[in-house]
Amino acid sequence: MHNFDTLYNPYASRRMTAYAKNGMVASAQPLAAEAGLSILRKGGNAIDAAIATAVCLTVVEPTSNGIGGDAFALVWIKGQLFGLNASGPAPRLLTLKALENAGYKEMPQYGWFPVTVPGAPAAWAELSARFGKLPLTEVMAPAISYAEQGFPLSPTVGRNWDKAFNTYSRELNHEQFAYWFSTFAPQGRAPRIGELWNSPDHAATLQSIAETKARSFYSGVIADKIDQFSHKYCGFLRKDDLDAYTPEWVTPISINYRGYNVWEIPPNGHGLVALMALNILKGFDFERKESTESYHRQIEALKLAFMDGKKYIADPSKMQVSIEELLSESYAAERRKEIGERALMPEPGNPPKGGTVYLATADGEGNMVSYIQSNYMGFGSGLVVPGTGISLHNRGHNFSLDPNHDNCLESGKRPYHTIIPGFLTKDSRAVGPFGVMGGFMQPQGHIQVVMNSIDFALNPQATLDAPRWQWVNGKTIEIEPSFPEHIAQALARKGHDIRYTLDSSGFGRGQIIWRTTDGILAGGTEHRADGHIAMW
Prior knowledge:
7-stranded antiparallel beta sheet, Serum Albumin, Chain A, Domain 1, alpha+beta
């Protein structure tokens, strides 16, 4: 896998794998990647670059993330991997009874009900304090500059912005949503591709976060504004909820897959789904990528793992089945036996009891970061805190309202989370960060990236360019137009409900940086987005 000049590249890529020595930033938006690189050039490390890129993405790609969202990170530094869970819990006042009184039988997508405590600003401050080299004010300066002076919209961002505007114009008619339109559509429409857009409120908020190391967001003037907005429209988020929040350093979880360790953040994220599926798949031999059997087994393993994930993954303090049980070799073997010649209608097993942005960074010192950040479902809840540019996320939409479910809504509880950073090591040495953003596509994207890289020896760019599939539900599989037709027909004969889709945006947007054994960085970026690799 590490001799990148000899790796197989069967796809007509829009880009070639990028190589560098001193540093690399891979992101779905060019301005954000270049912001991270500028911090590396100023003496910052991979952690500083990741923060700079992430904060910049809240400005230049607000269609996928924002200041009011959550974040997760895997950080490789000095030969050790650290995990940061910066997802927030349900507010104290948000209860099942409140939803019942409002007449809801499931968590709504918009408004105050799905708003949980945002964790992203705390992630930036925490990463900077523990591992950064440069002051947070310097690291966040590029993002603040773009917010103040403006930037021209890139194509994917422009298309998604217009799509969101059309949806919100139909769906969001209450007065509380007016601030989204005044912030993100001040001319009565979405800004157009190539058009300059700026947000002075956004810039002022980021400056305050940088100067106070995020305390203003959680216990200062910004927290006051959030609290006042929530009070005005009968929301549930309060200053007390914000003040009580701290992100959590966690121990990453992994499995060994053909000599490589694949790492994910533990629940409440669903990286566990990718690991469970890979645990099943490592019991098979895959001779060729483009074969019906290869795809069939991947799809079936993913379906089984996803059903277990949807049943058992929750805030770890509420999970009734342990991670160790779900990742045990014996349970993987039992689930593997369920994969036959025909497509399954998946069901959860019985283990033994016992709108997102992704970026990757690396520096010349050996540090690497896998980072993901999201508002969820595009801009999130549709709520923007007046005078701040903060679009609040709707991550609580993933809570179950079934009192018997592990992931049932409770005050102070974190929901099942879809955003997951990935990382690969071999023999206690970093190979590098990878990720594929995009809701419930994410663990499916992780499986395809890992197998394309390890089983099928594709280079980073070819790994991302390869046609993708996505399990939707039941036996339904969506595939991209470039997916081989003869294999699609063969999968249909096995009982899969195969559906071609012309819109590739639902298949995730990934980034990869691998470090070779001689220290060279090799990166791939996403052709389904405005992907860019900045390097030196």
